[in-house]
Specification:
The protein is built from two helices and eight strands; from the N terminus they run αβββββββαβ. It is an alpha+beta fold. The strands form two sheets. The protein has a five-stranded antiparallel β-sheet, sandwiched between helices. The protein has a three-stranded antiparallel β-sheet with strand order 4-5-8. The structure holds nickel (II) ion.
Length: about 150
């Protein structure tokens, strides 16, 4: 495994739409391993492939119950609302309160191409929405409804 550099705000890469993964090969597995290492090293709870310069629909999330690898993820259902502080490894020092669904159901593929269903509530729902947004070139700042409390 190897840690990769995180793309930062100002890089036009972050506003691009990522392409679907078609090959579930060793290269994808290496990418996922590197993304997890990069996420943990940066003390983040999620990372999208575009953030390490790869425009593929891949992200990793770990909100405390272990790593989840998501390939070609799609939000299938959402309910409720939450307003919580949010940040991004690509926007160091930037934070804001976002409006996100409280619960989401995501359909994705694992690293072997098998279909998986991931349910998230609270922080996990927020992280899933945040990372899937990255795959569509959307940053959390577009969901900010107010500044964080001082
Ligand atoms: Ni982010």
């Amino acid at each position: 495994m190897a840690k990769r550099n995180i793309v930062k705000l100002g890089d036009e890469m972050l506003s691009k739409v990522s392409r679907p993964v078609e090959k579930f090969d060793g290269r994808l597995h290496q990418l996922l391993d590197d993304m997890k290492e990069t996420m943990y090293a940066a003390d983040g709870c999620g990372l999208a492939a575009v953030q390490v310069g790869i425009l593929r629909r891949v992200c990793v999330v770990d909100t405390g119950d272990g790593p989840i690898e998501l390939v070609n993820p799609v939000i299938k259902g959402k309910s409720g609302h939450q307003e919580e502080a949010e940040g991004c490894l690509s926007l160091p020092g930037v934070s804001g309160v976002t409006d996100r669904p409280m619960r989401v159901i995501v359909e994705a593929q694992d690293r072997y191409g098998n279909t998986i269903i991931v349910k998230g509530e609270g922080l996990k729902a927020r992280a899933l929405c945040h990372e899937i947004d990255h795959l569509n070139g959307i940053l959390f700042t577009s969901h900010v409804i107010r500044n964080c409390e001082e």
